[in-house]
Amino acid sequence: MAKQQERVVRERPAARERPTSERYERYVGGSPEAERVILQRLADDLMRVQLKIKERGGASGIDRTFHAKAILGVENATLRFHDSLPQELRAGFAQPGAEYPVIVRLSNASGARRPDPAPDLRGAALRIQAGDGEAHDLLMTNHPVSHAANAREFVVFARVMAGADTTVRRAVALYVKLPRALGWATAARMRRNVLAGARREVRSLALETYWSRSAILWGEAGPVRYRLRPAAVSPAVPAPPPWDADYLSHELATRLARQDVVFELCVQRYEDARLTPIENGAADWPDADVPVVPVATLTIPRQDLGTAAARAAAARIDQLAFDPWNTTDAFRPLGNLNRARKAAYEASSAHRRGRRFVTPTPRRNVVVGALLRGAFGALNRFVPWHRLPTWIGLLNVATIRQVLRRENLFDTEVRQAPPRPHPVPPALDESLLVRRTYDGTYNDLSDPAMGALGATFGRNLRPVHRPDLFDEPNPVVVSRELLHRDSFIPARSLNVIAAAWIQFQVHDWVDHKRCPAGAGSVEVPLPYGMTWTNTPGGAPERVMRFADNEDLRPAGGTGPPILSANAASHWWDGSEVYGGDESVAKSLREPDGDASLRLENGHLVPGPDGIPITGFRDNWWLGLSVMHTLFAREHNAVCRALREEYPGMDEESVYHTARLVVSALIAKIHTVEWTPAILATELIDIGLKANWQGPPESWLTHLGLWLADAHALTGIPRTLPDHHGTPYSLTEDFVTVYRMHPLIPDDYELADHRTGRRLESLGFHDLQGAATEPVMRRTGLANALYSLGIAHPGAITLRNFPRALQAFEREGEIIDLSVVDLVRTRRRAVPRYNDFRAGLHRPRLRRFEDLTTDPDCLARLRDVYRSVDDIDTMVGLFAENPPERFGFSDTAFRIFILMASRRLQSDRFLTVDFRPEIYTPLGMDWVARNGMTSVILRHCPGLAAVLPRTTSAFAPWRPTRPEANTGTTHD
User: Fold this and answer.
1) Which residues are catalytic?
2) I need a labelling partner for 140 at 20 to 30 A (CA). Which of 256, 560, 604, 703 fits?
3) Peptide bond into 119 cis (omega under 30)
């Protein structure tokens, strides 16, 4: 006992000297970040509880997980600190005589809106408005301790009790389900705590005492628990009438009509970890050992709660999200339960307000999915998915995607851990509900920065940072031996519009911003005897040098520099057309607030450097000019249609609605036209069209999806947003598989679409950068489209990298883009090819022959690499024999099937807010009726005769027969 007393004496002064949270708290999982991940999963579980309560109760919307039924809501209460407030408790807003307005909400504790006579705990929530930008939320319940010792017990209890709205269901939950989930001893203790509070008859909430049940800091005084108790003895209240389901509300209304209701706010101060534990919410701080110190008086003034103003105030309060983390650092909540509240309250409040969503997986899908994973896992050892009959192959691909969603999504964003207090979040600007922001913020209304400009790239595979292998094998040697194009290898099922299209899309999705010239560079040693000129007119050097990427940041402040921010938003929002921030977006519009994009006689407006002013200007060439011109014209066409259909719509609304429509149309074209063109199989065509518009009308298909993946029974635009357990972002691995530069030809022939007459033959350098727009204007959009439409792109394979891009001038540098691609992938810690494919659940290579049977490729691979484990990811993806009629490898396809659906399914403007109220009926019809062919014909109707009749506009077009007299072809 003497040792225990000595320990307490030593500990208490230390607590007074340093009242930081680290002094008292212990984190589940061993660290704040590990606990954060655990608590976020528990928060997701609570959203599922909300759905279960809604389904069981038959409610029209999502309600609070707890404290759903309000008994009282008033905005005119006051809190006054006592003049005699002890010196050691004077901190922040807690000062002698200080008085503040308070919002008060009293409630029943259940998540279901049950009658007041039903056994239940009762709660009190206060929002103390201490000044501009400062508020403090205090939350309490009318029982001294929590039924749960920690967050896990809290959430399990909520899950078990969800929908237990009858005596029988409640008994089954408490005496059967709870012991099965947490064990007999824990369940017994939780039952005791719950029943002790819930069984007691409550006649008036004005006469109840409410306890915080968990601790907060109180400035330099250290941790306290607080409580609210009646300030004076009140007259007895008669027993409530059993037929009055709202008697507690009626009693308070009657009481407040006659008199003020007054409570006293009290605190208990921390003594030591044994007597006053911080991390155990189920442990009492005994009054006999820990003095209760009154600090302030809460007064709810006499008033008539039946007036329209009082009812409106109660309705406003019922929409508020009370959160103990709405406070300041000096009054920071403490303990595991409070830290869980940070994640849980934010999630459940956002869910209730329609700002965050959860889509539970039916149990049958879980069971059938597990069976399918086992069956296809065994089958695919002998027969790959693409060699199976179409419908079995589709099921196989869906199963692979489920595995990838579970195992290949990693969040890299630096999150707040441990949580920090914050001001009460401001009211959301209503315009954010119906418009894409310029920088991608507020797509997810519960996490405004998710996927926005500057958000980090995620990962599909754990990064492998090996600085010792940055130059091994030498990337210049790899490029010369395995990538350099000796002769053009065409992809005959596509046209060059398909190549321009994917670059157009990638510029919307991803951008690793480069350092300014001279601010930071990467140096690659050259093979013996080789030199490189790094700048125009510069001297030959023994190294190849190019600009490093900006904003490579250590994850969490430590570790290798492998975390990189996206200089574009991650969303499919048309930023390549509209710009990635407000200043750029507004500069692209016509003056005086006109909704249209600026064009000169139908062409983009050149900037001072000769490259058009548009949303994304890097790597400019004729193909990009065609795409940007076409969709700038499409935006303006949508604007004209909206003005005509809705003459009362202001120009700002016209602009934002047109942007929504064009962005969605681009997403649709990519999903149902471009992708099936480059992956030209029946299976992919069915699967991608199902992604957009739902599966084919077949009872067998619907039965299979009902059993295996009920979420796929409709097209993604008719579902709720789903991030599949990981905040949305595009990934470094996604960037890697979209390195498709072999698609670009080195030589181009421009022709007249009406006669087939050749206009001119140009190399890539002649129609890129500042040279692009003169070519575009003298050729015209229709002829440029036709010229690209009748030409083939390059195949995505080894020995087919464009020669023009291997000595390419960009922003004052001369670069070999193939070397840059290799080096970037290595330095960004993307695993080498064998680890990459294994991480995507494909068998590892044991020998070079497992990758390719081409003798020349095999010989070159053996010359360059010591083993199959050293093969660069890009090289392996190019070398791999793709499935029949595929434009890229099966390994790359794994990233595609994971991320392609994710780009749609995470975006609220392509799911829950893809609806006429947001897009207008005209806008919805525009997206539904149009595709790449109709867009081209709207702006170039003369191309109707040459466009493909039965396939997409990305397939080769019909060449016009040249004029008989070829003597004028050079005019």
Assistant:
1) 507
2) 256
3) no
